[in-house]
């Protein structure tokens, strides 16, 4: 009964900004890492940014300094602020959450449906 829903995708010109949001809901005991991944047509899926529950973050080198990931543990949400967007950022962006459904059970990998980001030059 875990649901992962992204929102905020759209069309922007190069240099513009978008903010993606993701909410995880359902029968959740705990969430460890949350993150954003993207996949462009004909390309492999790649990590964009991740955030641990404790606050540490990791970014792909290609987005470092332009994107910022943040999360609200109380609300089970994670956001991705994307600034200075480039055409190569265009992709479907997916939210990922590592979720435990009950105590002392290994975390499972849950994914959202994806949201399209289009960047025109």
Please explain how this structure is put together.
There is one protein chain. By secondary structure, the protein is mostly beta strands. It contains no helices and eleven strands. Strands 2, 4, 5, 6, 9, 10 and 11 form a seven-stranded mixed β-sheet that branches. The radius of gyration is 14 Å and the shape is elongated. 31% of the residues are buried.
Name its key features.
56% strand, 0% helix, seven-stranded mixed sheet, 121 residues, four-stranded antiparallel sheet, mainly beta
Alpha-carbon distance between the two ends = 41 Å
Structural class estimated from helices and strands: mainly beta
Q: Largest sheet, described in full? A: 7 strands, mixed
The secondary-structure element order is EEEEEEEEEEE
Q: What would the average pLDDT be, to the nearest integer?
A: 96
The helix count comes to 0
**Low-pLDDT sequence parts:** none
What is the helix content?
A: under 10%
**How would the global form be characterised?**
elongated
| DSSP strand tally | 11
Tell me the β content: over 45%
CA radius of gyration is: 14 Å
Short summary of the structure?
The chain has 121 residues and is mainly beta. It is built from no helices and eleven strands.
Layout of helices and strands:
Elements: E1 3-7, E2 10-13, E3 18-25, E4 30-39, E5 46-51, E6 57-59, E7 67-72, E8 77-82, E9 91-100, E10 108-111, E11 115-120
Parallel strand pairs: 2-11
Antiparallel strand pairs: 1-3, 3-8, 4-5, 4-9, 5-6, 7-8, 9-10, 9-11
